[in-house]
Amino acid sequence: MSTFLNKITLRRPEQKDREHILDMIREFQEVESEMAGLWNFAETETDYEDWLEANSLQEVGLLEKGIPAIQLVAFDETNYPLGFLNLRLRLNDALLAKGGHIGYSVRPSMRRRGIAKEMLKQGIGLAHIKNINTVLVTCHQNNIASRFVILENGGQFENSIEETERYWIRKNNE
């Protein structure tokens, strides 16, 4: 694994990011990779502006999922998008079993560089700012890379539910 040496910033997507984010989505689709951490964007979605509006509505829990969530994109210092992260501010039964507070994925061409570890670290920090002191992060039992990222960020294994491993990360490892 090579280390990504550039600064990573998590922030809400903006209109100016349109082409770069759509390129990243196409990259995920071309390799048929799951886009964990990307909410409200249908595979046939072509209207970026509608997605931005849906993200705003999701933050206040007004979309069909009814879960307030913050859609973020990780960018390097040149504003190149590296991945998606979605922070759910509340959990329903489905997210409690699978999904948790944070979903994330790194652009396929940028994997194995430590980006996911830093993204999750920043996402956990934001969760703590939002008064989520115990963060649930899940991964599929076969996703060794994600398990490693979660453990490196202080994840404590609780259990598995239908092939989904559930980890809790407590503020300051309390």
List the helices and strands and how they pair.
Layout: E1 9-11, H1 18-30, H2 48-59, E2 69-75, E3 81-88, H3 93-97, E4 102-106, H4 115-129, E5 134-140, H5 144-152, E6 156-161, E7 164-170
Antiparallel strand pairs: 1-2, 2-3, 3-4, 5-7, 6-7
Keywords:
single chain, 174 residues, alpha+beta, Aminopeptidase, 3-stranded antiparallel beta sheet, globular
Question: What is the structure about, briefly put?
Answer:
With 174 residues, the protein is α+β, with helices and mostly antiparallel strands. It has helices at residues 18-30, 48-59, 93-97, 115-129, 144-152; strands spanning 9-11, 69-75, 81-88, 102-106, 134-140, 156-161, 164-170.
Hey, roughly how much beta strand do the residues contain?
15-25%
Major β-sheet annotation: 4 strands, antiparallel
Q: What average pLDDT do the residues reach?
A: 91
The beta-strand count equals: 7
Note the run of SSEs as H and E: EHHEEHEHEHEE
Helix content: 25-40%
Q: Work out the radius of gyration.
A: 15 Å
User: From the helix content, strand content and strand pairing, which structural class follows?
Assistant: alpha+beta
Strand order of the largest sheet: 1-2-3-4
Uncertain segments: none
Instruction: Give the overall silhouette.
Output: globular
CATH architecture: 3-Layer(aba) Sandwich
Distance between the first and last residues' Cα: 30 Å
How many structural domains?
A: 1
CATH superfamily: Gcn5-related N-acetyltransferase (GNAT)
The CATH topology is what?
Aminopeptidase
